[in-house]
Design brief:
This protein is mainly beta. The protein has one domain. The protein contains 1 helix and 5 strands, in the order E-E-H-E-E-E. It has a 3-stranded antiparallel sheet with strand order 1-2-5, with no helix packed on it. A two-stranded antiparallel ribbon has the order 3-4. The radius of gyration is 19 Å and the shape is rod-shaped. The two termini are 18 Å apart.
Length: 70
Amino acid sequence: MTYLVFVEENNGKNLAGFISFLSDSVRIKENKELESEFNIKGITYSYLPAMKIGRMAVDERQQRRGIGHR
């Protein structure tokens, strides 16, 4: 899923940047310390859901205004 960020300026709304999120998973079976923590009601999970940032960009004209930070 990609989100667009717009800023309102004197000449209307302008695209300031975007961020893309991807769904993924993290394998925990290889880490014995974590494996016991994810044994819930007798079910041992070998993967956990995760989300990662695929791409992120801020227009050069909008940089240093805190948009990427937010």
